[in-house]
Amino acid sequence: FAQGPFIAQVLVGLLLVSIASILYALEPQNASCTAQVWLLTLGYTLELVPLLVKVAAINRLVAATRKMRRVKISMRSLFITVASILMLVVVFLSIWTAVDSPGYLEQRYLINESGGEVGTFVTCASESDVWNVILICWN
After folding, report:
1. pLDDT tens for residues 46-79?
2. Which of 9, 31, 66, 85 could form a disulfide with 50, with the two C-beta atoms 3.0–4.6 Å apart?
3. Is the pLDDT of residue 102 over 60?
4. pLDDT confidence of 138, banded at 50, 70, 90?
C-alpha cells in the first residue's frame, strides 16, 4: 500500500497538532480558542485515522489469505474511508462552532478573604461540556 500518501497525511496531522500546541501557549482569545479545537481535533484525526485504516486493510488481507481467497484493496477505497471520517469530524466541528463556539472565559476567585484580593484564571471553554466529552471519546 502506498506509503507516501499515508505518511504525508500523518505528518500533516502532526503539524496541525504542533500548531495547536503553540496556540495553547498564547493568551486565550475567541479566535484562538476556536482554532485550538479545530487544529487539535483535525490533527489527531489526520494522525490516527490513516494508520487505523491501513491496519484494518492489512487485517482484511491476512484474514483473506487464511481462507485462501484473493483480495484486492484499492488505494481509492482507503482514501475514501479516511476522507469520509475526516468529513464527519469537520461537520461535528462546524456544528460546535455554529452552536456553542469555544471562547475566552475569565474566572475570578478570591486569593485571600481577609484582604479581598481577587485573582483571575483565563481559559478557553464552551457553554456546554458535552462537546468536550464527545471529543474525549473520539480521541
Report:
1. 999 999 998 888 888 888 888 888 878 888 888 8
2. 9
3. yes
4. confident
3-state SS of the chain is: CCHHHHHHHHHHHHHHHHHHHHHHHCCCCHHHHHHHHHHHHHHHHHHHHHHHHHHHHHHHHHHHHHCCCCCCCCHHHHHHHHHHHHHHHHHHHHHHHHHHCCEEEEEEEEEECCCCEEEEEEEEECCCCHHHHHHHHHC
90 pLDDT tier (thresholds 50, 70, 90) = very high
With vertex at residue 127, the alpha carbon angle to CA 124 and CA 128, rounded to the nearest 5 degrees, is 110
